[in-house]
Amino acid sequence: MKIIVTSLFVQDQEKALKFYTEKLGFEKKHDVPVGEFRWIALVSPEDQYGTELILEPNNHPAAQEYQKKIYADGIPATMFGVEDIHKEYERLSENGVRFTMEPKKIGEDIIAVFDDTSGNLIQIIQQ
After folding, report:
1. How far apart are the C-alpha atoms of 124 and 127, rounded to whole Å?
2. pTM (predicted TM-score)
3. What domains are defined for the chain?
4. Reduced to 3 states, what is the DSSP secondary structure of residue 51?
5. Strands of the 121-126 sheet, one edge to the other
6. pLDDT of the residue at 63
7. Are strands 52-57 and 5-10 parallel, antiparallel or unpaired?
8. What CA–CA distances, in Å, run from 113 to 8, 35, 65, 122?
9. 11 FRET partner, CA 20 to 30 A, in 39, 47, 65, 69?
10. Of the candidates 20, 68, 58, 23, which has an alpha carbon nearest to the alpha carbon of residue 37?
């Protein structure tokens, strides 16, 4: 068994799609209308057949409450792995991504956290 899809609640699917593709560099794999929303799946350009990230609309009250509370508590909604966190931090910063935590060594790993402009904090990690 392996993880093939994971979801991330977003406040605005179109805004999130632009951020995740234009700022972070993910690629759109699927964009299918589903009623008033869309099935938007992104993949890493380094792994076209890897785990898909679904930009899930947070239209359900429970999703909205969950997203607001973990954001307010400073808890990242998900984590992405990077080869060189300092290089990635510089690239993303230059691309207008706002970090809430600069790269910091935690045990053997280095982590940083940024705001995805769609209601989430996202952690990146160099292991």
Report:
1. 10
2. 0.95
3. 5-126 (3.10.180.10)
4. coil
5. 78-81, 121-126, 109-115, 98-106
6. 95
7. parallel
8. 16, 33, 21, 5
9. 47
10. 58
pLDDT band at 17 (very low <50, low <70, confident <90, very high): very high
Tokens of 103: 């790269």
Rounded to 5 degrees, φ, ψ at 3 are -80, 125
State the DSSP code for 24.
Answer: S
For the chain, counts of helices (H) and of strands (E): 3, 8
> Which residues in 11-51 belong to E strands, given as ranges?
27-34, 37-43
In whole angstroms, give the CA distance from residue 61 to residue 51. Answer: 27
| Amino acid at site 6 | T
Match 């996202």 to its residue by tokens. Answer: 122
